Amino acid sequence: MNSIRKLIPFALVVAVMASCKVGQNYKRPDIDFPDTYHGGDSLRDSLLQGKKNMASVNWKDFFKDSTLVVLIDSALDNNLDMRKGRMEMDIGYQNLLQSKANFLPSLGASPFKYNREYYSEYYNNYGSNRARRNHGDDIPTTFYTERKEYVSSLQASWELDIWGKLRWQKEAARAEYMKSQEFQKALQTALVAEVASTYLNMLMLKSQLTVSKRNYELGKNTLRIVELQFDAGETTSLAVQQTKSQMLRAKALIPELEREYAIQETRLNELMGRSPQELDVNHHLEDITFDSTYQTGVPIALIQNRPDIAASEYNLIVSNARVGITKAMKYPSLTISGGIGLNSYQIQHFLDPLGAGFAMLNGAIFQPIFQNRKLKTNHLIAINEREISQLDFKEKIINAVGEVSNALVTIEKLQERHAIAAERLEVTNKGVKDAFLLFQGGYASYLEIINAQEDALENQMELVRLKTQLAIANVELYRSLGGGWK
């Protein structure tokens, strides 16, 4: 009872000291968020006015193309960066478990140890000519056995978390683990967006190939008519040469588009973590649609929606925890250690706990005094790193708001350009038909029909590009809002 009473003051002192956590708990810095995104004003009345935030939409629901959904699903399973990210997450989880285990005592054991020491004839406790030989070695006759010892022990050591160092380490490890999770989400959003963009570029090239082949056939028909006119003496050889040149220009686009298509196909295979192979892309650019009944939400929601912003905030939490760790390192540390075991000079008494048993309990306080300024330097560096992390966090938010605003402006202006290009396409297509009819009737020259065909080809290719850019802009808006990881 008396021994217990003696321990009560010590326990109270330890409890009070253990509550003395140094450092400041994390608090999110104040950020001046705008009320709305800048740009895309014309979209607010007709588009993006649904009840569901676009960022919360599952990517399988956002993309309507079944082939694209299969490609994205395969990329998420097999992409090499995604697989490495999952391993990084596991590393972070193991570090978190380790930080929790730091609160527990460490335990070590020496199941059995046998010492046998030999000393020379003139050995003394302060001499330098002491010789130790392992048991079984040849022993000179001038040596004699001084002592044999049999030891078995169990040791424990426990560092009390007086100033919160271990708690800060645990908070840092938890934030690192959560950051790795957010990095994985950010990687997924980027991967989903890149797979979709690459797929859309393939559809664009596929459509442009169709346009080029159709114009090439149209050019061949025009050349046949000009050659017939030349045979009839109704035109010159220059007309034949220029018409053929225009036809070959249309033909030259075909291998170039096929080359670009193959490059995009290779890239898509890389995103899916496999070697180049032919992909079955049987859909067309004209089939691509996006639901326009979603809302963009407000900029402050980006903190919850965008994983890269969440990862940046977790990095700030880690930096704040390191300030606490480096500050706690400047204060005393208290370690309690103990051990129990058996120690005997005679093997027959080794297992006798009354005769050979021992127990010990030690307490040590270590106060760093002079460490060549290392502790102060580490603390000041940690404070500056926390400030840098805070600026990085704010910068990440500003960039994210800018990305959404840019995506809205891009969609708005691409829609305007697409409407103009579609109207122009009707004009140029009618111009080709009229020029061809006039050419057959002898009321138009070959130059007029060549110019009409080139104008139509350019406009058709431009319309395909604009439709693709508009589709990719929708994907970019989805990504910039934080969509793609759900």
UniProtKB/TrEMBL annotation:
It holds the Pfam family OEP. InterPro entries: MdtP/NodT-like, OMP_efflux. PROSITE patterns: PROKAR_LIPOPROTEIN. Residues 240-274 form a coiled coil. It is found in: Cell membrane. It is a lipid-anchor. GO terms for cellular component: plasma membrane. Its main location: membrane. GO terms for molecular function: efflux transmembrane transporter activity. Keywords: Coiled coil, Lipoprotein, Membrane, Palmitate, Transmembrane, Transmembrane beta strand. It comes from the Bacteria. This is TolC family protein. It comes from Echinicola strongylocentroti.
